[in-house]
Amino acid sequence: MPRAPAPVLRPDDSTNGPAVETRGLIKRFGETTAVDGVDLRVERGGIYGFLGPNGAGKTTVIRMLATLLRPDGGEAEVLGRDVRTCPAEIRERISLTGQFASLDEDLTGIENLVLLARLQGFGIGAARQRGAELLEAFGLTDAAARQVKKYSGGMRRRLDIAGSLLVTPELIFLDEPTTGIDPRSRNQVWEIIRTLVDAGTTVLLTTQYLEEADRLAGRLAVIDAGRVIAEGTPGQLKAQVGSGALTVRVADPAEREQAARLVGAVLGHDRVTRESDPAALSVLLPERARVSRALAELEDSGVEVESFSVGQPSLDEVFLTLTGGPHAATDEPGDRSGPADRGAPGGRGGPGDRGEPEGRDEVPATEGTR
Ligand SMILES: Nc1ncnc2c1ncn2[C@@H]1O[C@H](COP(=O)(O)OP(=O)(O)OP(=O)(O)O)[C@@H](O)[C@H]1O
Ligand SMILES: [Mg+2]
Questions:
Q1: Which region, left, alpha or beta, applies to residue 346 given φ > 0 means left and ψ of -120 to 50 means alpha?
Q2: Which atom of ligand 1 is nearest to the CA of 61?
Q3: 52 in ligand 1 pocket by Cβ < 6 Å?
Q4: Is 357 in the pocket of ligand 1 (CB under 6 A)?
Q5: Bias category Basic and acidic residues: which stretches (predicted)?
Q6: How far, CA to CA in Å, does 110 sit from each of 91, 161, 177, 240?
Q7: Domains of the chain and any CATH numbers
Q8: Using one digit for the tens of pLDDT, what is the confidence trace for 202-214?
Q9: Beta carbon of 51 within 6 Å of any ligand 1 atom
């Protein structure tokens, strides 16, 4: 279990205002408006989640807040300082762990941390000591002398986060800290994030996982296509979305249509989604109590159910509901009002979308910000 790295806090000379405040924040890349008028207020302390699918604009917002990218419009203040006029002061007090690890693959774990500490002005002895403390705190002592290219994804992620904690920041941005790592490593990263909060750091993290936002964040903003489409506590957002989803897998894919009709008749036809698995369908639940009725209908009609589960709505369902798409929580069958034609969230800007021109207005990273 990781423990909180000993805080090395820099004095806070600013007011007690919010950690982050933006008004109408805009960023364009050529024809693409990546961030389209974002208003945010993140109070100090605790974990604020930024939830959204690929290409939603999460990283772009974070990079503007970390002063790595200049906004094209709107205002943003970080720890009471304007990102345009006070980037150096902001960089002194924040830290950023990017979506993709920024480690030197050929160096060992300890060498990476010592190098980063030296870049931040630590003397050699202090750099070695702090590096060793962080490796210990993150359960990497045994791997200290191993080259990073021989690390697993989870170890890399932990080392990357360790590198942004050489000086305990007042505010840390963690961009998808758990994407692509296994459940055990994910739990370790969650523990690390919680210990940071206990040490007084404000955490702003992005994620594509509803479960992660739900477990960690006290508040969250749901972002889609560059806009905040919902904001509140996880409980408030889930209440908006509905009580969960029923997924049914029939034994014979030929019976899926019949199952969809039967389940739709009980729970609302417009809530039924045919999954890519030809035997599976899922239904956004208007109220949990009707699940047993829907399953009873299937049994009475002789449709053999291989498995079923009732879970939280998926991120897709959250988006479709919040944006008024086909799964919108309405009892009117066939109600397709709202931007229903925009396609599934997964269809928008995947990682492959990103080989585009790097923004001309990139601000070179300095030693103050990792
Ligand atoms: N440097 C860039 N040049 C051109 N377009 C960019 C650049 N960075 C991001 N974009 C575009 O801006 C949009 C938002 O991208 P961003 O990386 O902020 O999304 P994201 O929410 O972080 O997605 P992911 O979950 O995939 O990391 C996408 O359409 C993306 O292709
Ligand atoms: Mg991103």
A1: alpha
A2: 18
A3: yes
A4: yes
A5: 329-339, 351-370
A6: 24, 13, 20, 46
A7: 20-238 (3.40.50.300), 240-342 (3.30.70.870)
A8: 999 999 888 888 8
A9: no
